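Subject: Sanity check before I submit

Could someone independently write out the structure tokens for this chain? I want to compare against mine line by line before I put it in a report. The sequence has 393 residues.
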Amino acid sequence: MAAQWQVTAQERTARAAHRLLARGAGDAQEVAEALVALHATDPATVFLSVGARLAAPERAVQAVEEALYGPGAPLARMLAMRRTMFVVTRAFAPDVYAAAGRPIAANERKKLLAFLAEGGGWDEKWLAAAEDAVTAALTGGGELSGAQLSRLVPQLREQVVVARGKPYEATQNVASRVIRTMAAENRIERRRPAGTWTSSQFRWAPAQPLEDRPAEAARAAVVRAWLGAYGPGTEADLKWWTGWPLTAVRKALAALGAEAVRLTTGAGDATGYVLPGDAAATEPPTPAAALLPALDPAPMGWQDRDWYLPREHRDALFDRTGNVGPTVWWGGEVIGGWGQQADGTVVWRQLSDRGAAAAKAVDTAAAELTARLGGVRVTPRFRTPLERELASA
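---
Independent answer below. Compare away.
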């Protein structure tokens, strides 16, 4: 039996630099394919993640809007891994939905029915009528905001009481819950926002149908894509990233014939996996600076982060629930974080010293990002200690 390939931290940072951080993509679709899926919980993340990898980053807003909302749009938003919002290519969407989106949609419907029954006494028949009315409104009215849908569909204006009789009793509208569940089931989809590119107030339209895929084959396709971009990774990394049970992760790895390797990047060795034939050394990258936004796919790609981010810096860059803030990268590792001051200037703080050349390159990248944002302030949805500190300086 051949010995397992020993993968060092240097090898993993080289792979990250080449596969996840490289700047030179021609369009937003190319970036989404390279990263597997773009985090889209915070709308600004998509634009900043794409801009950090485009050959012409000044075209980021136009490139993303064309890819999401233009004729034949090749990208779509969907609720998927870990019940997180992602932007994926429409070609990849059927696999993502079958592997991760469909079970989440089923759970969303179950929770919605319980919410409606408890708060308003409504059942599946009432919900079906409301959903039919939403579909009819969108079919006849094109792209509509949530507020416009509520004016056209009376059921969406209903309210329910939650936690009745308790100190934290509250009244909630049903509109957002109904619309979100329909979107999770790929019956409707988010379209161009009502505001700017940083807005989360989306318009809605009928969704494009997805080709049905068997769940196991779809999970294997998702793991294949993840290993191609983020591998090597452990079973624990994949379980965390996908949100699947460990059994499903192991079945997908076995279906692919994933190759086991030895990771020598932490306190002790661990077993990782790469695609068949991918157990080979990577050419050391030419170090380059990258300023990535909060929730960028790269820092959110693994559960184990010690090999690219020293543990002592993690509290500054992540919030209490595990959401990453804006990060500064050099040669495939995180060396700091960034934020925006009141006037829109991008500032950063070094957490790991990689020399004068690295610091100068980051200064240049920060100035370029300041110019590209043109005074637009991007406040992450999930704020982290370092980002807050830099923003208030």
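---
OP: Matches mine. For the report I'm noting this point. The CA atoms of residues 152 and 301 lie 41 Å apart.
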